């Protein structure tokens, strides 16, 4: 499948989509041997980052300490996907006490406007034109996020969390995934001198096996380690961010020092619901993750997914239909709750979900999957966004019994293509709808650009509890809009099909949105295309952007899972 067709297939904003290559060579996932059980562990998308988190756990650190070290290390070794120049969501279950969710999503600067991504004639910019350069950069949130988590649950000193990442920034071996993404993202990276020097030395993408040193990033990390999070949001680092986006060769913008100084991570109420005997909790708006996962699961609850099993095309048909309905609601109703009314309670109310589930039949595809009308919903335009495949997720469990899942991102490959202080700046503002309203509807889109607003996200860090209220599974994914479907698939794999988290992650993926349906190329799902077509679908085999990481509680201890399609690994003791 060529890149254009894949782009058209995966995302509703067809002219604005961007395909992204796999972390691993194309091909179906092959389940690894079952992971051993550990007292404490980290599952991350890069083994060097997992090792950084494990180092904190071995020093007596908490899951929060390990998560911070992992995020910082990923800034160095997986710079195409996430880092301190971006933001994320953290879902944290302490060993004792209530679940806490922290929103470290990027924010639009005060200069932002609903017309930010429109041409002079009122039509939207192309995605590439909008994403590259300063206009797409939101105020980064990851440093404030880990600072909030460290304040609440940290055991080690703040500076200790930075040491593994600093060592890596002094020199590490480039992985095959980083080399592939340097080649894939060269057009964006090539427009910035600092980015080019790191990832296109001599004009060519950096090669796997090359030793890469990033002294500017090491210096940034040392500064924040020594002076605390304010060293990022105030002073020379902040000034360098402002100078970079204001002076960008492409789309310079007017972000200010005040925009950075004002940024705060938000502690938000988790969004929870029931699925069979279990409770599933995740991140609320501006994430669409928890609502989407709960809707997909809730719409499937009346079907016997266990009896159908993972090898039955009907099970995957039902899953596809639940995705189509949930994504339709997402496009219409989810946005930043600080700016728009989001009817979360109505969207996950059991009677509403039952009414949506009633649209699904085992024998035929829904002709048109449209958004519903939940209780408390205001007039609203349906407006698909432009979220592209990228991002990273990691999950941690510590020896005291705490567990977490943290999804972190800079959006597309190398974000805006801008690098300052050794780290890539995000292009998260292109997750907003480019047009503030659907021309066929006078109502404004929930996810339109506004100053100070956080763009909607598909990131879905999720924790599952058993009937006794014990946390048993923490899961999350990367891959743009596919994230919600990936996480839901893994949960079904564990809860309905009785798989270990590793095998649930390795299950093939099906992704359905609007009238499009993709099945993972080369997987067992590709053999089901005739059966799915007989049910009314038009399936296409595609290489999907898939990358899950998770941890589960077992009778013998913690067990982890990392997507075999990626470079991900589980590290524990």
Provide the fold topology:
Elements: H1 3-10, E1 37-38, E2 41-44, H2 47-58, H3 63-77, E3 87-93, E4 100-104, H4 127-131, H5 142-153, H6 163-169, E5 172-173, H7 176-184, H8 186-189, H9 193-199, E6 211-212, H10 215-227, H11 230-233, H12 236-246, H13 257-261, E7 266-268, E8 271-275, E9 278-282, H14 289-300, H15 305-308, H16 313-333, H17 344-348, H18 350-357, E10 392-397, E11 403-409, E12 419-420, E13 423-424, E14 462-465, E15 471-478, H19 483-495, H20 501-506, E16 510-513, E17 516-520, H21 529-534, E18 539-542, E19 547-554, E20 557-562, E21 569-572
Parallel strand pairs: 17-18
Antiparallel strand pairs: 1-20, 2-10, 2-21, 3-4, 3-11, 4-7, 5-6, 8-9, 9-14, 10-11, 12-13, 14-15, 15-19, 16-17, 19-20
Helix pairs in contact: 2-3, 3-5, 3-6, 6-10, 14-16, 14-18, 14-19
3D architecture notes:
This protein has 573 residues and is of the alpha+beta class. The protein has one domain (3-268, 385-508, 544-572): Glutamine Phosphoribosylpyrophosphate, subunit 1, domain 1. The protein has 21 helices and 21 strands. The strands form five sheets. The chain has a seven-stranded antiparallel beta sheet with strand order 1-20-19-15-14-9-8. Strands 7-4-3-11-10-2-21 form a seven-stranded antiparallel beta sheet. It has a three-stranded mixed beta sheet with strand order 16-17-18. It is globular, with a radius of gyration of 22 Å.
Q: Helical segment tally?
A: 21
Report the span from N to C terminus. Answer: 42 Å
Examine the secondary-structure arrangement and name the CATH architecture: 4-Layer Sandwich
The Cα radius of gyration reads 22 Å
Sum up the overall morphology in one term.
globular
CATH top level?
A: Alpha Beta
Strand residues, percent: 15-25%
């Amino acid at each position: 499948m060529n890149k254009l067709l894949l782009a058209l297939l995966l995302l509703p904003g067809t002219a604005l989509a961007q395909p992204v290559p796999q972390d691993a060579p194309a091909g179906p996932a092959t389940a690894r041997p079952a992971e051993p059980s550990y007292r404490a562990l980290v599952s991350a998308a890069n083994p060097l980052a997992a090792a950084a988190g494990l180092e904190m756990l071995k020093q007596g650190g908490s899951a929060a300490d390990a998560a911070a070290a992992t995020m910082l290390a990923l800034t160095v070794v997986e710079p195409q996907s996430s880092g301190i120049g971006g933001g994320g969501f953290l879902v944290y279950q302490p060993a004792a006490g209530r679940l806490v969710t922290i929103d470290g999503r990027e924010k639009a600067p005060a200069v932002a406007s609903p017309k930010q991504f429109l041409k002079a004639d009122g039509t939207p910019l192309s995605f590439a034109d909008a994403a590259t350069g300063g206009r797409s950069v939101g105020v980064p949130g990851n440093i404030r996020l880990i600072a909030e988590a460290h304040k609440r649950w940290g055991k080690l000193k703040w500076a200790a969390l930075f040491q593994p990442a600093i060592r890596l920034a002094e020199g590490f071996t480039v992985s095959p995934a980083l080399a592939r993404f340097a080649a894939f993202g060269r057009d964006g990276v090539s427009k910035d001198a600092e980015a080019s020097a790191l990832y296109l030395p001599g004009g060519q993408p950096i090669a796997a096996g090359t030793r890469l040193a990033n002294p500017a990033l090491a210096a940034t990390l040392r500064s924040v380690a020594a002076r605390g999070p304010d060293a990022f949001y105030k002073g020379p680092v902040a000034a360098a961010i402002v100078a970079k986006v204001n002076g960008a060769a492409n789309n310079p913008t007017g972000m200010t020092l005040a925009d950075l100084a004002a940024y705060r991570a938000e502690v938000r109420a988790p969004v929870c619901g029931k699925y069979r005997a279990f409770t599933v909790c995740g991140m609320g708006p501006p994430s669409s993750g928890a609502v989407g996962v709960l809707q997909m699961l809730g719409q499937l609850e009346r079907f016997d997914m266990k009896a159908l099993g993972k090898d039955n095309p009907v099970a995957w048909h039902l899953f596809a239909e639940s995705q189509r309905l949930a994504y339709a609601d997402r496009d219409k109703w989810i946005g930043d709750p600080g700016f728009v009314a989001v009817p979360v309670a109505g969207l996950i109310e059991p009677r509403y979900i039952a009414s949506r589930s009633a649209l699904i039949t085992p024998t035929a595809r829904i002709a048109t999957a449209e958004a519903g009308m939940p209780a408390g919903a205001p007039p609203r335009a349906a407006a698909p966004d432009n979220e592209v495949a990228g991002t990273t997720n990691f999950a941690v469990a510590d020896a005291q019994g705490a567990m977490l899942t943290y999804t972190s991102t800079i959006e597309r490959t190398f974000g805006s293509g801008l690098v300052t202080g050794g780290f890539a700046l995000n292009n998260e503002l292109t997750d907003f709808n480019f047009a503030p309203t659907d021309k066929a509807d006078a109502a404004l889109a929930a996810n339109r650009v506004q100053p100070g607003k956080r763009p909607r996200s598909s990131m879905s860090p999720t924790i599952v509890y058993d009937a006794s209220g014990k946390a048993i599974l923490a899961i999350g994914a990367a891959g743009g809009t596919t994230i919600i479907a990936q996480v839901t698939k893994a949960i079904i794999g564990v809860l309905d099909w009785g798989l270990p988290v590793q095998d649930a992650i390795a299950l093939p993926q099906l992704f359905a949105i609007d009238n499009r349906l993709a099945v993972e190329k080369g997987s067992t799902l590709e053999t089901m295309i005739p059966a799915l077509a007989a049910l009314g679908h038009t399936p296409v085999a595609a290489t999907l952007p898939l990358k899950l990481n998770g941890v589960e509680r077992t009778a013998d201890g913690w067990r982890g899972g990392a997507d075999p399609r990626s470079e991900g690994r589980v590290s524990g003791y």
